[in-house]
Amino acid sequence: MSLDLDDPTTDPFDVAREAAAFLASATGVERHDVALVLGSGWGGAADLLGETVATVPSSDVPGFSAPAVVGHVGTIRSVRIAGDDARPDRHALVLGSRTHLYEGRGVRRVVHGVRTAAAAGCATIVLTNGCGGLNPAWGPGTPVLIRDHLNLTATSPLEGATFVDLTDLYSSRLRAVAREVDPGLDEGVYVQFRGPHYETPAEVAMAGRLGGDLVGMSTTLEAIAARHAGLEVLGVSLVTNLAAGISPVPLSHEEVLEAGIAAGPRISALLASIVRLV
To answer: Which residues form the Nucleoside phosphorylase domain (predicted)?
Structure first.
């Protein structure tokens, strides 16, 4: 019988270890090296990374559930990344969906994928998302590296007196690797709101005055949990729309999906190239 992640007396890291053990058995891969969380628009990257060794329905894995958002894929994949003379083959753990805080399932569920990746052996995690942009020069379809974040969710994935330094949360080394693939990649500060409603123009203006460049509803809690678990973090946002008050048209989830589909082949190839180098 699986441990109950929602039971406050259960250690969430025990559930992550249980999930990692399940994945090792289901995929036949004892240890994974790098994890990817694929947000809106990024799903095609898994097909370009290498050979898919196994695909597991998320809802079969302890602590995971089926995705609640259109555009996310309800599977976890193990992908073999071919090596060369300088590097052996590696395995990527690809999470096709994430749990968002606005779903109301609790913050433990939000970061369970990250903790499972760490328990599965990963040393690096790539967090992607689709987001609104504050810079008018970043049109829909623009990938932007996350340099830092503002967590406006009023919560944390860490429990108790758990003090973790977030000074260099988004790895400068990994951002440099990404720019080896595409020197033109810009950087920005990602601001997470709780959602699921889009931000008001006043909230977007506030985010800009606080130093934000990108606004969305995911990623920051996962990044904090990843740092706590010892993972090196690369964050990449896909600007799917201009944020409220900057965009001349009303916002919609359909717009987000359409922008992701249009940019999908290009950003998926970019991400796969980056992951092969990290």
So the answer is: 34-276
pLDDT in tens, the chain (278 residues): 578 998 999 999 999 999 999 999 999 999 999 999 998 778 888 889 999 999 999 999 999 987 766 555 689 999 999 888 778 999 999 998 789 999 999 999 999 999 999 999 999 999 999 999 999 999 888 999 999 999 999 999 999 999 999 999 999 999 999 999 999 999 999 999 999 999 999 999 999 999 999 999 999 999 999 999 999 999 999 998 888 777 666 666 676 667 667 777 888 899 999 999 98
b/e 172-209 (16+ beta carbons within 10 angstroms → b): eebbebbeebeeebebbbbbbbeeeebbeeebbbebbe
d(Cα 261, Cα 258) in Å, to the nearest integer?
5
Contact 190, 237 (CB under 8 A): yes
Q: Tokens representing 236? A: 């990449």
> What are the catalytic residues?
199
- Residue 185 CB contacts under 8 Å (≥ 6 apart), including other chains: 143, 144, 145, 178, 179
Alpha helices, H only, the chain: 12-27, 45-49, 107-119, 172-181, 201-209, 220-228, 253-277
> What are 150's two structure tokens?
């503002």
Q: How far apart are the first and last CA of the chain?
A: 37
Give the DSSP per-residue string, 139-195: -TTEEEEEEEEEE-SS--S--SS-----TT-B-HHHHHHHHHH-TT-EEEEEEE---
Greatest pairwise CA separation for the chain in angstroms: 54
Can you give the residue ranges of every domain in the chain? 12-277
CATH architecture assignment, domain 12-277 = 3-Layer(aba) Sandwich (3.40)
Establish how many alpha carbons lie within 13 A of residue 239's alpha carbon, considering only the half-sphere containing its beta carbon: 28
